[in-house]
């Protein structure tokens, strides 16, 4: 319950943050003068979209800082990222509309004035800063949305959006407009902007420095199924405290990984001496992991994720697709000592050869009366459907679901479950690719 | 989400291209407001270069000492003119009787929030309807209303830099006419409607201008 309240609070905060400058703007001068004639109407809309757009952009940067409180509030880093993405899109669209509305207001004077407005000029450099910031956003988000760059290259490019924000910050600071005349508006926007820039600085320190890092060393790599490797690690110093179902970002310091860091779920339990993760060779990076040498140092950042945290009591239904089994391995192990919680795990993989931890999970199911394990081979029986789950588990409507697997599979299953009357709030999903 | 981005980007670039194209196509037409075209025929030598660009930044100082064009400038500001003093001999004949000559003395009368004339680059602008929308606030402009020359203040934006080209283009819309020119009363009373633009400009050019 407390978590739900926190989640609401975070959303309330975002809405309040976005609407506060609008409120101040409304109070600065009588509304009648704001929407008096075409020129004023366009200008006012131009201002409004920029106020909300700027606040959302600041929010989006703060979300990207992976702050613990925000992660708790949004129930998992994947949700933080999804919201970062959504709010980012909204901010971008609003900011695109900003110069267009203003150009329209000039258009009520002359096409000449409107065209001149769109051309950056040094004499009006605060305005030119705004143009520059927006163009930078257009280019960088063009890369995000339309070019499929390699993850690390994309990430490198995406970082520069903070530069666009910095330029926009100076645009806000020096433009002569309501933000220059209203002290309240000025203070609000600039403090929020500064906060976002500080959050970004913090993120850079974490990413490139030693803050919040845990050092481990690779102690073993073994193949647990076709093209699936389990990597074991021992802490070099203070171990990271995590819970079953959570994940961390792993940065293997071997030069072949060129400093990339990727998220992996823990398949080990918190009490175990070793930290274990499992990875399937799906791309360049994960393929290289197979050749990981024992003794390689690893930097862990985390833990993140709230997958598997739930009110106990009723039998949950877990559905894993392929390598999406990893968070459930830890969670299933945790059931042994937790009689309060019951779960039925459906593990959908192509065939037995590709199924990792098959024996471990089957053994666990024998020893733990509160855990049922149902492997499902799609080569033989086709894709797993809600009907098939229902055939095993009985009526689904009031059950709680955890899904982790390929995105199309999760989408399809979620739709089927909704049709069966399961409420959306009872379906929790975890992507194994955070993007 | 990607679709929303695509649509927005498309609309954004379409608008930008359309506005820029329109700006280029109508460039010459907009540059010389119709009003000026009428009155520029017989302007005292000083301002002729400014006419095509009414917003020129430099002070071609219409100094308090008036130009040769108006031989008896002092006469024009008579508080209660018994005779139609308003039509000095040298300037254009106004179409109808009620013409106003834009002398400095006449300008000086328009010195308040509700009736503000500015002299910039040898031209007289009536900007009262815009004042409330001025991004820098009304009070910054007010001291220049009715003054002999606000060119410097406009060019340097009160010493803080410069007005944007778009702000300068906007100014053209408030033009009444060149200093010492006689214009019809109608042009003076409704100076802002010389464009097919909205009649009620209480504009605000948010982005970095005035």
What would you say this structure looks like, in words?
The complex is a heterodimer of chains A (435) and B (210). Chain A has 17 helices and eleven strands. Chain A is α/β, with parallel strands linked by helices and 435 residues long. In chain A, helix 1 runs antiparallel to helix 3 and helix 3 packs parallel to helix 11. Chain A starts with a helix and ends in a 5-residue tail after the last strand. The relative contact order of chain A is 0.08. The model of chain A has no long low-confidence stretch (mean pLDDT 89). With 210 residues, chain B is α+β, with helices and mostly antiparallel strands. Chain B contains eleven helices and six strands. In chain B, the strands form two sheets. Chain B has a four-stranded antiparallel beta sheet with strand order 2-3-4-5. In chain B, strands 1-6 form a two-stranded antiparallel sheet. Chain B is elongated. The C terminus of chain B is likely disordered. At the A-B interface, helix 3, helix 5, helix 6, helix 7 and helix 10 of A face helix 1, helix 2 and helix 10 of B.
User: Radius of gyration of chain B, rounded?
Assistant: 19 Å
Structure classification of chain B:
alpha+beta
* Proportion of strand residues of chain A: 15-25%
Q: Which percent range describes the beta-strand content of chain B? A: 5-15%
Overall geometric form of chain A: elongated
- Uncertain stretches of chain A: none
Largest sheet of chain A: 6 strands, antiparallel
End-to-end separation of chain B in angstroms reads 38 Å
- Mean pLDDT, all residues of chain A: 89
Please give the count of helices of chain B.
Answer: 11
- Spatial ordering of strands, largest sheet of chain B: 2-3-4-5
Helix/strand order of chain B, N-terminal first: HHHHHEHEEEHHHHEEH
Termini Cα gap of chain A: 29 Å
State mean pLDDT of chain B (0 to 100 scale).
66
Overall, the morphology of chain B is: elongated
Radius of gyration of chain A: 25 Å
Helix content of chain A: 40-55%
């Amino acid at each position: 319950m407390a978590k739900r309240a926190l989640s609401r609070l975070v959303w309330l905060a975002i809405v309040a943050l976005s609407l506060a400058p609008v409120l101040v703007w409304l109070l600065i001068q009588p509304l009648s003068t704001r929407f008096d004639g075409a020129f004023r109407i366009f200008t006012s809309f131009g201002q409004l979209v920029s106020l909300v757009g700027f606040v959302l952009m600041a929010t989006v940067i703060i979300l990207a800082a992976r702050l613990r409180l925000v992660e708790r509030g949004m129930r998992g880093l994947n949700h933080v990222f999804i919201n970062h993405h959504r709010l980012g899109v909204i901010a971008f669209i609003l900011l695109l509309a900003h110069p267009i509305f203003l150009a329209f207001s000039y258009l009520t004077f002359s096409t000449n004035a409107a065209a001149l407005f769109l051309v950056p000029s040094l004499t009006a450099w605060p305005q030119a800063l705004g143009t520059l910031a927006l163009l930078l956003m257009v280019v960088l988000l063009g890369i995000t949305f339309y070019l499929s760059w390699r993850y690390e290259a994309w990430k490198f490019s995406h970082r520069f959006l903070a530069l666009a924000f910095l330029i926009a910050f100076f645009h806000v600071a020096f433009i002569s407009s309501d933000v220059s005349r209203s002290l309240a508006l000025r203070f609000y926007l600039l403090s929020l902007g500064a906060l976002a820039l500080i959050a970004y600085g913090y993120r850079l320190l974490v990413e490139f420095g030693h803050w919040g890092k845990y050092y481990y060393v690779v102690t073993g790599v073994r193949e647990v199924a076709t093209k699936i490797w389990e990597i074991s690690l021992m802490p070099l110093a203070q171990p990271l405290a995590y819970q079953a179902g959570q994940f961390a970002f792993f940065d293997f310091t071997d030069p072949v990984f060129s400093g990339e860091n990727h998220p992996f779920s823990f398949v080990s339990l918190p009490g175990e001496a070793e930290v274990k993760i499992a990875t399937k060779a799906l791309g360049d990076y994960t393929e290289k992991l197979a050749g990981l040498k024992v003794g390689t140092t690893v930097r862990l950042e985390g833990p993140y994720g709230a997958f598997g945290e739930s009110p106990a009591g009723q039998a949950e239904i877990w559905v894993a697709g392929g390598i999406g089994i990893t968070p459930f391995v830890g969670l299933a192990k945790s059931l042994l000592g937790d009689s309060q919680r019951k779960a039925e795990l459906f593990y959908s993989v192509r065939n037995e050869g590709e199924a990792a931890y098959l024996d471990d999970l089957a053994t666990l199911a024998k020893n733990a009366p509160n855990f049922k394990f149902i492997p499902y081979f799609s080569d033989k029986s086709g894709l797993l459907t809600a009907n098939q789950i229902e055939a095993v588990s009985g009526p689904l409507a009031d059950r709680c679901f955890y899904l982790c697997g390929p995105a199309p599979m999760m989408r399809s299953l979620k739709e089927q479950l909704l049709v069966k009357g399961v409420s959306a709030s009872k379906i929790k999903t975890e992507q194994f690719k955070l993007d | 989400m990607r679709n929303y981005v695509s649509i927005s980007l498309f609309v954004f670039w379409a608008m930008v291209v359309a506005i820029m194209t329109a700006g280029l196509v109508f460039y010459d037409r907009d540059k010389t407001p119709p009003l000026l075209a009428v009155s520029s025929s017989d302007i005292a030598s000083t301002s002729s270069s400014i006419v095509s660009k009414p917003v020129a930044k430099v002070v071609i100082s219409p100094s308090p000492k008036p130009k040769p064009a108006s031989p008896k400038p002092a006469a024009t500001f008579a508080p209660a003119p018994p005779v139609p003093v308003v039509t000095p001999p040298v300037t254009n004949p106004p179409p109808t009787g009620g013409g106003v000559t834009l002398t400095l003395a006449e300008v000086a009368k328009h010195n308040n929030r509700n009736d503000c004339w500015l002299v910039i680059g040898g031209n007289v602008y009536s900007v009262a309807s815009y004042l409330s929308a001025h991004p820098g606030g009304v009070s910054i402009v007010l001291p220049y209303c009715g003054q002999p020359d606000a060119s410097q203040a406009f060019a340097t934006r009160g010493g803080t830099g410069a007005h944007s080209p778009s702000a300068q283009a906007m100014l053209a819309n408030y033009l009444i006419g060149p200093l010492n020119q006689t214009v019809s009363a109608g042009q003076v009373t409704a100076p802002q409607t010389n464009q097919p633009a909205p009649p009620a400009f209480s504009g605000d050019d948010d982005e970095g201008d005035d």
